[in-house]
Amino acid sequence: QVQLVESGGGLVQPGGSLRLSCAASGSISSVYAMRWYRQAPGKERELVAGITSGGSTVYVNSVKGRFTISRDNAKKTVYLQMNSLKPEDTAVYYCNADLLIAGADVAMNYWGKGTLVTVST
């Protein structure tokens, strides 16, 4: 079974830090782009950060300078280091990745189940 599993969410105070992890597992031939999305209550899901297989990164403006996305290709894992957290960062954070499954001809997009990040006093 191919899956993406997030970890690292929790409750932090404003100004604090968290590091999220997402590991891909299963019969995967190749991992292409990996991304972090988030969805706050009553809001649409938004792209937070993305990273290509070659290491190029993109960020939504609201997290630039505070968040860093990285990956470990050997571990098929993507990370999101979140610093200087603000209450408005509170959301469920979802891992997303383009994966080529063993035996398949084309890559497909997969989602994790999400991990909750709460920034509050």
Provide a descriptive summary of the structure in words.
The chain is mostly beta strands and 121 residues long. 0% of the residues lie in helices and 57% in strands. The protein contains no helices and eleven strands. It has strands spanning 3-7, 10-12, 18-25, 28-39, 46-51, 57-59, 67-72, 77-82, 91-101, 108-111, 115-119. Strands 2, 4, 5, 6, 9, 10 and 11 form a seven-stranded mixed beta sheet that branches. Strand 4 (28-39) and strand 5 form a beta hairpin.
Features:
elongated; mainly beta
Q: Which structural class do the helices and strands define?
A: mainly beta
Tell the overall outline.
elongated
Determine Rg (CA atoms, Å). 14 Å
Characterize the largest beta sheet: strand count, sense, and whether it forms a barrel. Answer: 7 strands, mixed
Helix count from the secondary structure assignment: 0
Average pLDDT across residues? 97
- Compute the number of strand runs: 11
Strand percentage lies at: over 45%
Order of helices and strands: EEEEEEEEEEE
Query: What share of residues is helical?
Result: under 10%
Q: Which stretches are poorly predicted, pLDDT < 50 over at least 5 residues?
A: none
CA distance, first residue to last residue: 39 Å
